[in-house]
Design a protein that fits this description.
This protein has 458 residues and is mainly α. Among the domains are: 73 residues; 160 residues, no CATH class. 68% of the residues lie in helices and 0% in strands. It contains 20 helices and no strands. Helix 6 packs parallel to helix 12, helix 13 packs antiparallel against helix 14 and helix 18 runs parallel beside helix 20.
């Protein structure tokens, strides 16, 4: 995809008489002064001049240094980027009414790149969101059009192939982050999965096929989310929610509502996060396994904890644990296989951290780190950084920096905007100790890791 050069950035840099290398150095120095780090190089600056997207934190630092050079206020909008000083308009959901509408929307989404998001902000009108959730809650299943005339007849072998591919891409996502496989996954979904939905199949095969397609679509949403393209991720999630309605898969639909809650919570939309998680819990009652219900309750606990409601969060955490105690009493779908005890502990340690329950957060995060399978590299990195934050809040500076360093060592190949935000959040919290040799060494380590990521992108 050809991009237009960023004429505004080019003009401001020319006015400031600063080169690519000069701007990169000024940005790194400014980040250091803030107690954080950037791996910005002259190559990255050239990409931005050529029209590439930029992360909000980086754009803010760039605007600051150029403004200081010119002696006037500069905003990211003045540089041709998004402008966070202006209110973000609510994004319409456009919940598909019919199955053809859903498939058309998914086809359109597969033509959109996740690598260059315009903004990390996403505002959804409450009424629009409630309408989409209500539509899913009260809808009747569309059902499968079995044995329809078509140029191709498919069977369970084709469905197994899709599920095997989904499993492979999920492992890549856990190990390398969403930025690694999203492009290949959307190509696969567009050219290998969507066409099969128009083929001829039995009711059994069709039901399994729509379920497998929803799993791939959900993974596309997750990888877009992990890359930082929240608008694209949200549109994939709502389209996938509609897809689950075709075959009345309430358990998977509730999983999508849980994902929407997770995203809303990450973006600070706590009220919507709570509502979405509760819709997942209510919508799945009597239709989901105990393991799935534990996941739904954990999402509710995460949202309530971030909203600062310890009583309701404690209730949701207890419900998640009670459901999980019965996890082995039912057969779970393959897509839920990753949610083991370590994953549950990882969710709960976030809750304790957000509730400022430092001792409990340290204990739970340490258990999560000790029991997480290393193949889930991103999850392990998250848990280590939650442990580091909790140790820091508990007054254990050296232990916190050591733990965070291990997270960076194990995660510097993760093309995950979320993982990078966890790191910068920790750097912000430890910035009051910037002169400490261990903290300074950690900041150097982060700078080197980010630089390696940028080099890998070339």
């Amino acid at each position: 995809m050809n991009r237009e050069p960023n004429a505004q950035l080019i003009a401001v840099m020319a006015e400031a008489q600063v080169s690519n290398k000069g701007l990169a150095k000024r940005m790194r120095d400014a980040a250091d002064q803030r107690g954080t780090t950037l791996g910005t190089t002259h190559i990255a600056v050239q990409r931005w001049r050529d029209g590439a997207g930029i992360q909000p934190r980086t754009a803010a630092i760039m605007a600051h240094v150029l403004g200081a050079k010119l002696g006037r206020g500069i905003t990211p909008g003045d540089l041709g980027f998004f402008d966070h000083t202006q209110p973000t308009a609510p994004q319409p959901i456009g919940y598909p009414t019919t199955v053809p509408d859903a498939l058309t929307m998914l086809e359109d989404l597969t033509q959109q790149r996740a690598e260059t998001p315009a903004s990390d902000q996403l505002v959804i009108a409450d009424a629009d969101l409630s309408s989409a959730v209500l539509s899913w809650m009260i809808a009747r299943p569309d059902g499968i059009q079995a044995d329809k005339p078509a140029h191709q007849r498919i069977g369970m072998r084709d469905v197994r192939a899709i599920r095997d591919a989904a499993s492979m891409f999920m492992q890549l996502d856990f190990k390398y982050g969403g930025g690694h496989g999203h492009k290949a996954l959307r190509h696969y979904f567009r050219h290998e999965v969507l066409p099969l939905l128009d083929a001829s199949y039995s009711e059994k095969v069709g039901t399994a096929l729509f379920g497998a397609a929803a799993e791939v679509s959900q993974l596309l949403a997750w990888t877009a989310y992990d890359t930082g393209n929240h608008k694209l991720a949200h549109r994939y999630l709502t389209s996938t929610l509609r897809l689950s309605q075709v075959i009345d898969d309430r358990m998977f639909g509730s999983r999508i509502l849980g994902n929407l809650s997770h995203q809303a919570n990450y973006l600070g939309n706590h009220t919507q996060a709570i509502q979405l998680a509760r819709a997942a819990v209510e919508g799945a009652k009597g239709r989901a396994t105990p393991r799935a219900m534990a996941l739904n309750s954990a999402m509710e606990a995460r949202a309530l904890s971030n909203a600062g409601d310890p009583i309701a969060a404690g209730r949701a955490m207890n419900e998640a644990e009670r459901h999980f105690e019965r996890a082995d009493t039912a057969e779970d779908p393959a897509w839920l296989g990753y949610f083991d005890e370590a994953e549950l502990m990882g969710e709960l340690c976030h809750c304790f951290r957000d509730l400022q329950m430092h001792r409990e957060a340290v204990e739970q995060a340490q258990r999560a780190v000790d029991t997480t399978d290393p193949k889930y590299a991103r999850t392990l990195g998250f848990c280590r950084l939650v442990l580091a934050q909790s140790q820091l809040l508990h007054g254990e500076l050296e232990a916190a920096v050591t733990t965070a360093s291990l997270a960076v060592d194990g995660g510097d190949t993760l093309q995950s905007t979320r993982f990078q935000r966890y790191i910068t959040d920790f750097q912000a919290k430890v910035s009051t100790h910037a002169t400490n040799p261990a903290v300074a060494a950690f900041n150097d380590q982060v700078r080197d890791a980010l630089a390696r990521l940028e080099d890998d992108d070339e």
